[in-house]
Design goal:
Layout lengths: L9 E3 L5 E3 L3 E2 L6 H14 L3 E3 L7 H14 L8 E6 L8 H12 L4 E6 L13 H18 L3 E7 L3 H10 L6 E5 L7 H10 L2 E5 L11 H9 L4 H10 L12 H8 L8 H8 L16
Parallel strand pairs: 3-4, 4-5, 5-6, 6-7, 7-8, 8-9
Antiparallel strand pairs: 1-2
């Protein structure tokens, strides 16, 4: 994978696989024309990573868009990094069926990174004692497909420190990555510590706090001072700490703006001001109740 050629630096996963620090999130991108437009704009802007999931219902659209657009940009399958995720409805005994469906929908030969999307199981209460067993079964399935080369790296999303420790005690292949909500109001200090301890890459989603943080007075002031957009400041705050980001957008101009993260640096003072916003605020689903 040749992400450095795009100008976006990579992080090295514990599998030895390089993954770009910036990827395009595709949540809510479903209409084929919208997917095509977003992927085209992203490739022009230098994106080489794309984040999908079974529950986004756009794996087939993303796969088709890439097959159509990669040759146009002089790129091959090996030049891009594709992430997808196992839906919680397939957690446990349906994991093989779910993962193979993702592979078939994307139809790109293999998936670079495949995650368990949620620690719980659809249809089970968060306190249901079957949740840990289902997670373990899903992970064993991902390990099997990883050994076959169909999933180049495997990981998890929305896991808590307790879920991570449980997985590390039972897994044969350690997770390459944990993807969770992360922004100045939710710094996830303990989770980052756990990931560092286990050699797991920590990746952010909802870097803009579902849009709420772009109007925060501190973010606005930092953005004004460095003549950048609030979105760029929030994304830069993460990547400057070595945390990969996957901002989602269907707007070509916004997609391009979000890629302009590597030609400026936030001062230590600005980094500290943003980090001081931390208050444990979660804008997305809270997995801490899932046993």
């Amino acid at each position: 994978m040749s992400s450095p050629a795009s100008g976006i630096p990579p992080v090295l996963l514990n599998t030895g696989l390089p993954m770009p620090l910036l990827g395009l999130g595709t949540y809510k991108l479903v209409v084929p024309e919208d997917v095509n437009r977003a992927v085209d704009a992203a490739l022009v802007a230098g994106y080489r990573a794309f984040d999908s999931a079974a529950v986004y219902q756009n794996e087939a659209e993303l796969g088709r868009a890439l097959k159509e657009l990669l040759p146009k940009h002089g790129l091959t399958r090996e030049d891009v990094f594709i992430t997808s995720k196992l839906g919680s409805k397939d957690q446990g005994e349906k994991a093989m069926e779910g993962a193979l469906h993702s592979l078939s929908q994307l139809d790109l030969g293999y998936i670079d990174l495949y995650l368990i999307h949620w620690p719980g199981t659809e249809g089970l209460d968060v306190t249901d004692q079957r949740n840990p067993g289902n997670r373990a079964q899903s992970w064993a399935t991902l390990e099997e497909l990883h050994a076959q080369g169909k999933l180049k790296a495997i990981g998890v999303s929305n896991y808590t420190p307790a879920h991570m420790r449980e997985l590390m005690q039972s897994c044969k292949v350690p997770p390459a990555l944990l993807q969770v909500e992360f922004h100045p109001k939710l710094r996830q200090t303990e989770l980052r510590k756990v990931c560092k301890e286990y050699g797991v890459c920590f990746q952010a989603y909802s870097s803009l706090g579902v849009g709420d943080l772009v109007t925060d007075p501190v973010v606005l002031e930092v953005a004004k001072n460095c003549e950048r957009t609030p979105g760029q400041v929030l994304l830069r705050w993460a990547v400057q700490q070595g945390v990969p980001v996957i901002p989602k957008s269907s707007n070509p101009d916004r997609i391009q703006d979000n890629a302009r993260l590597f030609d400026f640096t936030l001062s230590d003072a600005d980094m500290d001001r943003l980090s001081a916003l931390d208050c444990g605020r979660k804008y997305c689903r809270d997995a801490s109740l899932v046993v």
